[in-house]
Amino acid sequence: MQTDVARRRLRELILDGTYPPGARLTEMEVAAALDMSRTPVREALRALTADGLVQPSGRGVVVVALAQGDLDEAYQVRAALEALTAELAATRQREGRIAPADLAALREIAIDTATATTEGRLAEAVRLNRRFHRVIAELAGNSMALHALERIWDQIQVSTLRSLAPPSRHAYVSGQHEELVAAIVLGRPEEAARVARAHVLDTRNITHSEEDQA
Prior knowledge:
This protein has nine helices and three strands, in the order H-E-H-H-E-E-H-H-H-H-H-H. By secondary structure, it is mainly alpha-helical. The chain has two domains: 2-63, Arc Repressor Mutant, subunit A; 68-213, GntR ligand-binding domain-like (Four Helix Bundle (Hemerythrin (Met), subunit A), Up-down Bundle). A hairpin with a 2-residue loop joins strand 2 and strand 3 (60-63). It is elongated. The N and C termini lie far apart (43 Å).
């Protein structure tokens, strides 16, 4: 469906910073950029407005970023949801409901994320980090939690693009990823939830610190 294609492509352009916060978009401009008719673009913009990535402005829309207070709240909700999905994933692993290949894939993504971050490949690191957390949410088997997280991840990603930089504590962050993977693989729900919650909140604290130093 053309609307779905337009929504996906426009969402990608917003998330990778091609259209940064504050960028004003019109149906005509987006349709030309995507080489599509205006009807699917119009519907895509409506969907992205509902997702909180853009807001109406005159005859078009503007890409929005969360204010600091709203961003803090987003991280709090993300922490709660990722604690839930980590707990559910560990529970399913303990019950033998996760394939070994899926666990191996999670480990591999954690390693790739750490490597990309260490080597300063920031755009790739962001993409891999997002994939790492999404895989855990997928392993949880809760589609509602995954859907809610997708929206929150999008809003956080757009809101923090301007401060994108190699985390000063990347080894610490990678270590938390390893702890989280281990807790899930060993089937320890409470530990997985604790590590996931701490990881998200620590990520927000690190972001705060680096924004202050900028």
